[in-house]
Queue: 3 jobs
Job 1
Amino acid sequence: MKKRDYSINTLYILVCLWILSGCASNHYSRVQDNHVVFYLKNPDAKEVYFVSSLDHYQYNKAFLEESGIWAHTSPMNTEFSYFYIIDGVITIPDCDVTVQDDFGGRNCVFSPES
């Protein structure tokens, strides 16, 4: 009976770790001079676009860097909302601040004051 309890506890711990690993952020940004660089980790993506209110939601191609990380550089002189299009699918990454869009969804918000 003890051996079975050990197996159930081990399985429980592994499932919890698996669930929590999915919570790790795959999206972050870094300020460099007068710009902000957004990074999105998605090694399986074939094409990634960064879309923001800065230029009236034009598609801006993100560039693939090492280890499946996509990057896009934007000016950081004003607050703006943004999202990604990954292989044709609109994707809202995990972000600290969001805003409701005109279509019932949410977009991330970047603020230079943050």
Job 2
Amino acid sequence: MSYQVLKPLVVALAVLGLASCATVPRELAGHYAVITPQQASAGGVSGTQVRWGGKIIKTDPGRGETCIYVLGKPLNSSDARPRIGADSIGRFVACHPGFYDPEVYAKGRELTVTGTLQGTVVRRVGQYDYPYPRVVADVIHLWPVRLAYRGYYGYNSSFYSPFWGLGYGPWWGDGFYGGGFYGGGFYDYDGGDDDD
């Protein structure tokens, strides 16, 4: 077999191998209550141990502690990272002693926290008074910025066939994922597209 035929197979196997290695970070491991922020916003669950995550809405350093307001998302079972594209499961606020820089813990960044529920904190969301369940956080795990794939099917700068037309071919691109079967490339994932 030629290298060009084997290349996509090697890349696919490497991606599968890396995906199978994903594990929950040690500081986030454990057993936690199966309750969503939306369910907890009704109150009556103080003292419950939770592991929640999502996208940062706002980071608010205060005197002695920082509170991070989060749009909750379901977590992946493999690594406890918020799931891409998942619907919100409610908002929450995680507070931890010390200073967390709002430029680092910025809007749109993903995090996962573990801690104990302690009542709710009411904040305005538009014209609505929203009860954020308050997590007294033991761990605040900020995830690295994702690299997301942006594909543009059909483009190929290195292949020409009169049967497919200029720049188009049966493999759509010049390499596998970023030039191969799909074309396109990678770009930094912003993730800050959710409303306040």
Job 3
Amino acid sequence: MVDAFLRSYTQLLVEHPEDISIEISEMDENFDEITIFANSEDIGKLIGKQGRMINSIKTVISGCKAKGGKNYRVNVKPAE
């Protein structure tokens, strides 16, 4: 659920939506790390001015905690 939402939402924000990929790593039973891979030109768009865009993404993802009970860390990295 989280990866499908992130993929569709981040593809709307970037110039190269075909380069978006999401990787979710389970760190322990209550904590997952989400890595958003994007074209290096689009990383700034995903982070936003003063980190506002990535913080809004994190806020929406934290709403998933209420439903699933997991904590999430969100990272943005360039696609290889």
